[in-house]
Amino acid sequence: MEQDAATRVTQILQHFGEREHAADDLLPLVYDQLRAIATRRMAGERAAHTLQATALVHEAYVKLIGDQDISWENRAHFFGAAAEAMRRILIDHARKRSSQKRGGGRSAVPMSVVDLAEDCDPSQVLALDEALTNLEASDPRAAKVVQLRFFAGLGVDEVAEVLGISERTVMREWAFARAQLFESLGDGGAPSGEDAP
Amino acid sequence: MSDTGDRTKDLFFELLDLDPDERTRYLDRASAGDAELRARVERLIAAHDDAGAFMSEPTSPDAGVFRAATPGPAPEAHTPEKPGDVIGNYTLSRLIGEGGFGSVYLAEQTRPVSRRVALKLVKLGMDTRQVVARFEAERQALAMMSHPHIARVFDAGMTGAGRPYFVMEYVDGEPITQFCDRKQFTVTERLELFREVCMAVQHAHQRGIIHRDIKPSNVLITVVDGKAQPKVIDFGIAKCMGRGLTEQTLITEDRQMIGTPEFMSPEQATLSASDVDTRTDVYGLGVLLYVLLCGAGPYDEGRLRSASFSELERIIREEQPPRPSQRIEQLADQREAFARARGVEPERLARAVRGEPDWIVLRAIEKDRARRYPTAYAFASDIERSLQNEPIEAGPPSRVYRARKFIRRHSVGVGVVALVAVLLIAGVAGTSWGLVRSMRANEQTNRLLVAAQNERENATEAQREAERRSTELRVLADFAQSILTGVDPAIAQGRDTELLMEVLRSAGDRAELELADSPEIHARIRNTIGHTFVQIGKYPEAAVEFQRALDVATDAFGPTHVDAMDARQNLLVARFQTGDLEGVSEMAGPLMADQQEVFGERHQESLRTERVVARVKMSEGDWEAAREIFERQLPILREELGPRDPDTLSAMNSLGVVYDNMGMRDEAIEIYEEVSAWQQELRGEKHPLTLATLNNLADVMMDDGRFEEALPILQRTYETKVEILGPEHPSTIIGGNNLASAYGQVGRTQEKIDLLLEIEAAAVRGLGEQDMRTLILRNNIAMEYAKSGDLARAEPMQERVVAGFEGLFGPDHPNTLRAGASLVGMRIDLGHYEEAYERITPLLPRADEVFGADSATAQAFQIHYARALIGLERYEEAEPILDRALELLEEDHGGQPARIDRAMRALAELYGATGRADEQRAMQARLDERGSDPPA
Question: Which of B19, B41, B374, B784 is the most exposed, fewest CB within 10 Å of its CB?
Fold first, then answer.
């Protein structure tokens, strides 16, 4: 199966420009892979607590792309899909947790669920998602930088490469987006820091 | 994004670059009157300053995704343990160590026995229950360990605050590396001490316990009865922590390393592999010995620390470390200290390590664990053998093996060495005389030998033939092998092309030595090497190889032998590519004659040679000759190769260029259209070659005045570039500029300006404010505003352009001077004569110097100067300047009509202002005669 997914990912990437719904086709494959890895980590002996986007995305990359030499455009497509998939995984999980909370407590969280934001309030995860969705509408590039840095765990240099912009621009977009998100989360009812003005 | 959004963002960025105390003042100024904007930016800057660790680590909750937004994590986090605290049965005495995992305290155990222990308190963020559960699972095994050189782990538990802790035998020692350096242990003494460490690790391995985190701080030395005693601490801890300690501490916020990755084995560095075994510890021991011998780990520490995560993983998994003795030499500046610490003279240190210690270490730290010592015991035994001067197991790592590993690693991505070897063999095997035949011959050997027995009269000959063929095969195989072994993986660290070049050069050198007796193979190998150089664009190197192939083949078989012909054709192309047109012309005639003689008139070989000749003609501007060749060949190519063959398409494209240059624009357009259609089909719309042909097509159309037709093509290529390369890519920006000029040509001025503004913004983002291309775009925009009469906008913009050019090129650069002159022109048109005068005066001597005092360009400056003088009513000064300028410009065959017009108009104005109506009328008549439009 895994080989299958890898082959399909490669095919999609190779013909990315020619296919109409290439991005839509790519996303579920990357999503499944990321989820599978995350789940396996949880079931295995490793403490999944420190599941890192970087590590997950990297592993998915190794599984799906391997050491094939793919062009930067295709890398960009891949990381774009991976970032989106990570975000969905996180959101799905937060939704599930927040409904379980209502239904009867944390212990009900099954081990097979991706354990990403276990220690923070799921409503905040969802609030972040909403804030990011708003940012996407007003400033798609800043949102893209957040997506790649935060959800795919790419470094500044990698984001710059994927988006084809300078590292300085990435840093600035990141600072801007982060300030916006921070501000809107603060507004959205999350208590602000004790010593924040 | 909306304009207000844009403004907010710009202002945010500007403030970001300022010191906090300058921000308020700047904000006052920049947001003057716009209270809403000001409030918005202020809120964002405050959020930026307060955000702290917010989102600083990718989706990792315990690192505080929402840390700053959610105050007060668990309250326990704020109350660190301190001496005197009681945890379980233990009372903390003092802090004795801190690291990425947490802190270690000396503690007193009270029950059931009274003793001093080390209590390791793990930082928050681990799943305590799991840690404790794993410890319980390991407890039995850990209890089985009983070795004088292993510190025991007694207990594990959970503090009231939920932090896991481990209780271990307290060891009052210092890290092995520090101890050996302080005691100035010799290399031999170090090896002896280290051997005991191996034996201790072996003891644990026999009880099924793997350490997973061997490093100097986990191997302590205590002195008992004057003798150094190693103690390995932390056995079993890493496993209880789930992932290895090293992994746990690997990445923190912003991916800074806090643990040391140097001791991590390649299998641990692989995020997908969780299986470690005893050989993982052999690796850790190997790196420890490495550090003991050289004073530093195999990889540069600074590099490891600054590497991105994937880069780090690549280094650990792939990069071949230097031998310890090489590393000592690399560390030349620290060598003396290391040497002194090892009790030897600096120059003797590398020698003491070179040889057996080198090999032993490298064996232990092999990337592939199957190649390492299988056990810590085997490692210890080899050290023992070395100390006893017995032959050791480890040898110099096999070059063949390493080369093969290198190939495997890069089999898909780079595959340089493999590629070369394959190319070499394929190149030789490609024709009927090559490897294929040799291989068949080899298969036939037995049959031939059997036949030989039956046919006695042929026996000797058949056998000789069979032997010759199998010799050929062997020669080839040996040669390929020698290429593989000839590549030192150290070379592989450079860039791919460099590696390839190195491989190719060494292949050439080897061919010279090893294939001296096989000219046929030698010539083909040289040809193949040459082709590979061509592939990477190294034409001069390729020419050398082809020349050598030609010499070898000609010497052995004569100039019309198939290999010699092949070499001649290759050499011809390589010469053309290096621009040696004379060399091409010299050899093309005889080659074509021979090719036609050997292969026939319509054979591709001779056609190809002729096309090279045609391209030489093109370079020489002999379009007619080139056209004749391409037009004659195209039908043949279409018929024999098909219309979509790359050779056919390339010939068509060349013919298009020929037509284009001969002014046969219709023909050029037709042919470009056909080529680009095929290219779109074959390579897709977005392929660089397709785009290049479309650009050619649009160019001819523009030249032909068919702007309306060129426009959609330029639009499409620009959009494709935006999509593929992004709006900020230089090529996109240039494409946008071309499109803008097409808009201008068809009179869509507003679209031109809009597009110029769009790409200028992209250029600012992608290239920066002060990039030359950004400034040129601004210059174009300012000129466009000026042309449309919007001088109020043009002038300040142009002023910024001039300042930018000055910063970029200095005040005397032609670009700076020209932009300055345009600015002066705008000021004059605005009626700002005083400012124009002040601006132009210092430019005059510079323009004279840079462009030459009599040049048309310098006269343009003089005309501006004179016009400023006229504006200031200093007519007497202005007149001689204009007279001279007009004279010089007219002498210049009227090459600058706009400047002549400008000088004439200025003179006419001057005559009018000074009441010389006749002269004014005469000048106006001359102007009318020239038929130029009055100024806007």
Answer: B19
